[in-house]
Amino acid sequence: MSKSSRVSEIYAAPGNAGTAEIAENIDISYNDIKALAQVAIKKGIDLTVVGPEGPLANGIVDEFKANGLRVFGPNKAAAMIEASKVFAKDLLQKYGIPCARSAGFSSYAEAKDYLQKQKMSIVIKADGLAAGKGVTVAETMEQALTALSDIMQTRIFGDAGNKVIIEEKMTGKEMSTFAFADANTSFPMISACDYKTVYDGNKGPNTGGMGCYSPPYFLTPELSRRITREIMDPTFKAMIKEGAPYQGVLYGGLMITEEGPRVMEFNARFGDPETQVIIPRLKTDLLDIMLGVTENNLKDLKIEFTDDSCVGVVMASGGYPGIFKKGLPVSGLKDVDKDIMVFHAGTRLDSKGMVVTDGGRVLTIVALGKSIDEAREKVYNNISRIHFDGCHYRKDIALFDKNL
After folding, report:
1. Are residues 206 and 285 in the same domain?
2. For the whole model, what pTM was predicted?
3. Which CATH number characterizes residue 115's domain?
4. CB-based contacts of 394: which residues, under 8 Å, 6+ apart?
5. Is residue 72 helix, strand or coil?
6. Helix (H), strand (E), coil (C) string for 251-306
7. 196-207: per-residue pLDDT in tens?
8. Which residue(s) pair with 187 in the sheet?
9. For the CA atoms of the chain, what is the radius of gyration?
10. Which range of residues forms the domain containing residue 294?
11. Domain boundary among 168, 186, 212
């Protein structure tokens, strides 16, 4: 947004050490919806862009619009497509949109009984928002029963585990696809592939994402058209029929199976770390797109992306996605090459104005290139120049066996 010639001031709530370089950070939680609305009114904010899923699910768009404020993102009813996996699955099945065979439960006993009759492998999902960590792919019945108990009895995800989805494990290639949409029109964007597990070789527990690349090496023009025709467009039309037209960006987590593309899940927002490799490829002014969405004139825009490839690697705190330390100094941020992008996530400025860690996923190091290999090489040539105690990152992002 800072690159738009029409943007003069940016505010970030709550912000981090990175946003502090280009914006004024406002020390308000992104979940304090009423306080955020009052700040937007007081400062005369022309456009608010909602990043996280929590405030979308809690109705921040409805609150802002009720106060006469322009805001980019789906309202509470439309955000249900991410906030409830049961809602999303029911929508897909009702309108015949390809997805995994599944069943939803609010009773632990009924879910357990159903689970014990299924063949492995199987996927267990908490219904609600769990910061990207509410999904377990169980290879054994023991793993599946443990995951179910963790969600519904131990309640490791809190109220997100009031309901659970049990679904077949799909096989194929995973990818993330995106589309902008106003209440009447949708526009397909480029796609990406992310890496969910914490360790190389797709080992270890799931995270919010450890890296990403765009475009997927297996994505053909025909597959792109098929995804738009069979999944994204029908989903937007279904939301209109359900009385919850979608405005914002919709993220489809897909599995490309032998039968074709199928939906794993939807997110009601830009993904992380997907955004970091998609937006650098955008040629059109992002402000124009967001205004087009809020004003329902997306059809009048020409949205273009570059043919470049983009790779991003997440630098995480030691111990993530488990327990980790905060407040560790980050060094080397100025030592990277000029064409390297460093996106801050879990950072803040300490009392001396120094950048320190403040979360599990701390930074995403991103580069563009004429090919995936070129972009990847740029990232890994620079990432070792940045350091904080205990930092770790995957060494195999965008390094793939195309025969898999």
Report:
1. yes
2. 0.89
3. 3.30.1490.20
4. 195, 198, 199, 200, 210, 211, 313, 314
5. strand
6. EEEEEEECCEEEEEEEECCCCCCCHHHHHHHECCCHHHHHHHHHCCCHHHCCCCEC
7. 999 999 999 889
8. 180
9. 21
10. 173-300
11. 168
Based on the domain organization, do 206 and 220 belong to the same domain? yes
DSSP states of 352-399: TS-EEE-SSEEEEEEEEESSHHHHHHHHHHHHTT-B-TT-B--S-TT-
Nearest to 282 by CA among 187, 383, 162: 187
Average pLDDT for the chain:
94
Are 223 and 287 found together in one domain?
A: yes
Q: Which two tokens stand for residue 167?
A: 């679904």
Q: Same domain for 164 and 52?
A: no
Query: Model confidence at 401, in pLDDT bands (50, 70, 90)?
Result: low
Q: CA 65, 69, 73 angle in degrees (round to 5)?
A: 65
Number of separate domains in the chain: 4
Count how many Cα atoms sit within 13 Å of the Cα of residue 359 in the half-sphere of its side chain.
18
Q: How far apart are CA 209 and CA 196, in angstroms?
A: 5
Most distant pair of Cα atoms in the chain: their distance: 59
Strands 11-12 and 24-25: parallel
